[in-house]
Amino acid sequence: MPNYYRSLIILIALIFPYSGAGQSASNIQIYRQEIATVQIHPATKPLSYPVIRLNSTEQILLSFDELGSLTNNYQYTIAHYDANWEKSSLMYSEYLNGFAENQVDDRHSSFNTLQLYTNYHIRFPNKDVSPLISGNYKIIVYEDYSSENAVIEARFSIVETQVGIRGKIERSSLVGENYRSQQVEFSINHTNYLISNPSEELLLVVSQNNQIARSLSGAEAQFMSSNELIFRHNKALSFRGGTEYRYFSCKDIHFQSMNIYQIFFDQQIYHFVLMPDEIKNKSLYAYQEDLNGRFLIDKANSVQMYQDADYVQIHFTLIMPSPLVNGNLYVMGGLNNWQLTDRNKMAYNYQTKRYELTMKVKQGFYNYKYYYDTPESFASSIEGSHYQTENEYLIYVYQRDRSLSYDKLIGFEIIR
Fold it and tell me: Across residues 358-370, what is the average pLDDT?
């Protein structure tokens, strides 16, 4: 049995990516430059997290654009993973009912847009393939019937709700952290579900806004009874609160919404220049409703946003008296899948004394933050951190099925 099942373990996912070994920095991996605006979520809930119930009518929707005038031939497969996102040893027939490989048939060309693109949709389960068991999954999209030509990998989970989870968010009890950190407290009720030995059977994952990054281990339930596990005043469940996300809207090319300084057209594409941003690490907390880093595709006066929304250039600027040393500065959020790439790395302008970046995005409403990437860095080095910040904490409860050697997802809850 793997070592991580010998004790009850909590994996803590922080809000921004970390390049440490063992975990990917994003729930979505893109392997082609022409692939853009990849989203995965429940089909009827575009702002929810990619988790659906087993044997329900719910579907996962994966959508993406391919920029340009060409339409390629794509297929997809569904792969099963354990609680640590390592590929499980199960055969297709043990976790899927239907075909192992399927065609991406739902595709539409953009309509009346300056940027030509093809929009693709994959819904799962469907008439061709459906899941047999719960757990972690990936949709892997590839070209020309060759899995070696992968263009996208996107994570999602399927839960069989066997246990109840209740929780709340408190101010951190860690010394020196109570003004900027939050602490998760929760209980797991398994009155109607047998868990013979929680310390060997269960693996728990707790994430802040579903962002995968560093992990901490060694946290165990403070109180246990025959039908309940209680996690309270646990230092391992303390998170930096961060700040509310910055935001902008580019859904209307004729309307200068809040935080937009200027809109102009260069005969090829529309440009949205954002108001110059300032460092917030010494600012007092201020509540602002946000999407916790996510984005929503939207175009004014359109009912087919996936096909009608155009691409625009967004100009970011962060006022900085002098350039940062020993690291790079990035614009971060769902708009770039929380990854550190050249596409979202800012450059310092010595004349204006500002960091600048121009990024192409699809019309909609977006959240973002600035992230200073150093080995010891947190987003709080630019944005600040407050215990009052509104965040969502996702709790996943996995159980090891010894007979089939896979990890069931027996409980899932979102605590706000």
Answer: 97
Residue type, 108: H
Helix, strand, coil percentages (3-state) for the chain, rounded to 5, are 5, 45, 50
Q: What is the per-residue pLDDT for 174?
A: 86
Out of 129-138, 159-168, 201-210, 349-358, pick the least confident.
Answer: 201-210
* b/e code 201-236 from CB counts within 10 Å (16+ = b): bbbbbbbbbbbbbebbeebbbeeeeeebbbbbebeb
Q: Which domain holds residue 275?
A: 246-375
Residue in this structure with the two tokens 């008439």, named with its chain if needed: 127
- Terminal alpha carbon distance of the chain: 35
Mean pLDDT (the chain) is 88
**343 and 395 co-located in one domain:** no
> Buried b vs exposed e over 376-408: b needs ≥16 C-beta within 10 Å?
ebbbbbbbbbbbebebebbbbbbbbeeeeebbb
Q: Is 52 contained in some domain?
A: yes
Q: Answer yes or no: do 76 and 202 share one domain.
A: yes
Classify residue 380: in a domain, yes or no.
no
231 lies in the same domain as 317: no
Are both 122 and 255 inside the same structural domain? no
How does DSSP assign 238-296, residue by residue?
EEE---PPEEEE-S-TT---TTEEEEEE-SS-EEEEEPPB---TTSPP------TT-EE
Name, in order, each residue with C-beta under 8 angstroms of 121's C-beta and a sequence gap of 6 or more: 61, 62, 63, 106, 107, 306
| Residue 115 scores a pLDDT above 90 | yes
Confidence of residue 73 (pLDDT cuts 50, 70, 90): very high
The domain total for the chain is: 2
Q: Do 234 and 209 belong to one domain?
A: yes
Is it the case that residue 162 has pLDDT exceeding 90? yes
Q: At 179, list the tokens.
A: 């003004």
Q: What is the pLDDT of residues 199-237, one digit of tens each?
A: 778 888 888 998 744 333 334 677 777 788 898 887 778
- Answer whether residue 295 is part of any domain: yes
